[in-house]
Amino acid sequence: MPRPSVFVTRLLPGGAIEFLKHHAAVRVWREEEPPLAEELVQQAARSDAILSLLTDRIDANLLSNSPRLAIVSNMATGFDNVDIGAASANNVLVTRTPGVLSETTAEFTIALLFATSRRIVEGDRSVRNGQWKTWGPNVLLGVDLAGATLGIIGMGGVGEAVARRGRALGMRVKYYSRTRKRDLEKELRISYSSFTSLLERADFVSLHAPLTAETKHLIGKAELDLMKPSAVLINTARGPLVNQSALYTALSRQRIAAAAIDVSDPEPMPPDDPLLTLPNVIVTPHIASASTATRSRMAMLAAENLVQALQGKLPKHTVNRNIARQWRERVRGRFTSS
Ligand code: DGY
User: Fold this and answer.
1) Which of 13, 117, 143, 159 could form a disulfide linkage to 208, CB 3.0–4.6 angstroms apart?
2) Within-domain flag for 106
3) From the alpha carbon of 101, which atom of ligand 1 is closest?
4) Ligand 1 centre and the CA of 155: distance in Å?
């Protein structure tokens, strides 16, 4: 039986690619930038499985033109780059990599809280621009995190890790989420809040919700108007959760005090984006999960998910479990994964 054919859409840190090679014939896209859509479609058409990244659009066109493709192992917690409906319709299993990046992403979120509250980027810029004339009692005054209210929207793995850190810093933590977590509320002494009340009361609003049709532009003009003028918006989840032109207006009119966003819409953010003209916004290039250890763990988990699926098993982190039965029928006896 021929070895299964696997396409990996970028070079990965750690041992993930070597691991895959023990189980399949592996082709790797070695460029720094992702394959263009047409290239990806061509590669997918030759593959039994793809290890994809959040930069790869796995859409209906690709899925319906890839008759061999049975597995998409997405190296991310989020899977908004994959058309799950089309994958299920084409009997393609989709997996993801939750959990392993929660602590690292939470650390970065807290770094953005510190950076905005203590104006770290502005301070660095002022030194480089020769504006540091003297120690001044009124220079670059910020706000304390201790005692401030952190509002977390989305209480999955990352939201929870942020809540723990917020509490450790002496913050009051409120959260809004689809699912209420009463045990966690007791354990961390955090409180559940309505969406509106969270926006009205939080000093820092941090987004940790997945991107879906319902959460697109979750934060627009109406929501920004509810926030305190002193409030800060942090987004380390997905760019389209925020209506970026509404954010620009709110920041430029000082309707809210500041924002720090690690994700944008589109990505990459073009260098002429109006947000980049504002002093009260920090933009980083989607690096919240970017520690060597975590990216290696994400890559390995994605590889393990893929290999399990090649072995006909349903990986724990399968997104479309609803197709399990017909998918198993489809792949039964089809692959030797070693
Ligand atoms: C994810 O896993 O969805 C993150 O955005 C990757 O950094």
Assistant:
1) 159
2) yes
3) 2
4) 15
| Residues 297 and 279 occupy one common structural domain | no
> Which atom, in ligand 1's list, is nearest to the CA of 263?
5
Whether the CA torsion 130, 136, 141, 146 is positive or negative: it is: positive
How many structural domains comprise the chain?
Answer: 2
Instruction: Output DSSP code: residue 8.
Output: E
106 shares a domain with 93: no
For range 309-313, the mean pLDDT = 95
CA distances, 237 to each of 152, 262, 295 (Å)? 12, 8, 16
Domain CATH code at residue 316: 3.40.50.720
Q: Residue 66: give the domain boundaries.
A: 5-100+292-331
Count, residues in the chain: 338
Instruction: Out of 236, 286, 289, 291, give the residue to mutate to test ligand 1, the one with the largest number of ligand atoms within 8 Å of its CB.
Output: 289
What is the arithmetic mean of pLDDT over 246-263? 98
User: Among 105, 263, 284, 291, which is best to mutate for testing ligand 1, by the most ligand atoms less than 8 A from CB?
Assistant: 105
What the block records as the tokens of 261 is 């966003």
Q: Are residues 116 and 196 in the same domain?
A: yes
Q: For ligand 1, what atom is nearest to the CA of residue 238?
A: 5
**pTM of the predicted structure, to 2 decimals:** 0.96
Q: Which residue has the tokens 């977390």?
A: 152
pLDDT tens per residue across span 10-40: 999 999 999 999 999 999 999 999 999 999 9
Dist CA 175 CA 215 (whole Å): 16
Task: Report residues whose beta carbon is within 6 angstroms of any ligand 1 atom.
Answer: 54, 76-78, 101, 288-289
How far is residue 101's CA from residue 198's CA, in Å, rounded to a whole number?
Answer: 25
Q: Is residue 159 part of a domain?
A: yes
Would you call 22 a catalytic residue per the annotation? no
Tell me: do 171 and 27 sit in the same domain. no
Mean pLDDT, all residues of the chain: 97
What pLDDT does residue 338 have? 52
Residue 9 covered by a domain: yes
